[in-house]
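note to self: dont lose this again. the chain is below, predicted strucutre after it. 383 aa total, dont forget to put it in the shared folder this time
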Amino acid sequence: MKAGQCLLLSVLCAGCGIQGIDRACAAETTDPFRELLVVDPALLAPSSAAPTELPWAPAEMLRATGSGRWLARGLERWRDAARSEGNEAAAAALDAGVLCRWLRATPENHCDETCAQCDARDYPEDRAPFRALAVVNRGDLRLMPDARSPAGEARVVLGLAPEAGAAVPDFGLTLIFEYSLEGSVESWAGRWHALAPMSNADASRALAAIVESFVSAPAAADGGPPLSQLRASIELDPGSSELRQLVPDADGELAVRGLRNTPRADLDGSQTLAAWVRDQAPRVLDGTELVPAAMLAQGQAYGAHEWSLPGVDANVRSEFDRGTCAGCHARDGLDGGFHVSPFVLGRAGVSPFLFNPSADDDELRRRDREQRALLCPDTTASP
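---
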């Protein structure tokens, strides 16, 4: 993904065509950490609400989207893929640090220390070893060439939770639940924008209503599930890190699928890939290229990769690198591949790619401009 596309978002303006308008657009202000990227514990973990009341809590997410066993089956498929591709460290961490930990949190399973022997293998939603990191508005993704919805997406980011008594998790693990939205993007922008002037308590309740509406939504208009995909990252060390994409199959089960715009490693340096990139050069430069499914990798190590593309212009090659999953998330990333840390909660855990007050521009500023354009369109512009 390019800089404008990157891995993670009631007083409304007059004349914007959104219900509740009562002020001039020129006077409106937006708050990126209410409307675009919600990471503040005051909203995500308010003292006034029990965890079971929060739809972004892992247990509630799993009950609404699938189940504990459903997610565990998807993680098992990820583990098996990592093992078959030679990343035994990642496979072992998923086995011991996530799946076995989850099983052993349920005494009724009667699992031994390694979970090689268990009387049962139940994965209760309320004992899932995760915590909420962020809720994200990605209405801007409606502009992507492969967008599923003209309203874009919304996302809930979960990370591996620390063990009891520990300050941080044993390793970096991030799961991004990405939901396709129904309805108009203007309506969704208005709902997010309404959070900006609210108190923390009111904003948390309103955010819960927003999340509940997309997490528990019925099947999308195209017949697919509201959950478009689950993007996942694990990082133990640079040699055992990887990015994955799990997509609901025809039965709703999470299956490992090719990473968006990320070719297989065996294509590096090949004339096949180089010829395709040369042919797609204009689309590579404007961010609209789509690498064919047959070329896609099912996983990629975290970190920028300089693809060898014989005969391809250096600028095109650089943009192609940045358009891969790892190439995007290596840019000012932190702690595990994505741009929200699984170790540090709140704004301190947001990467400088997303939020960098000392820079002239950052990704949240770009998304904020897009949000303002939705709320306050330029009615004088030519169609």
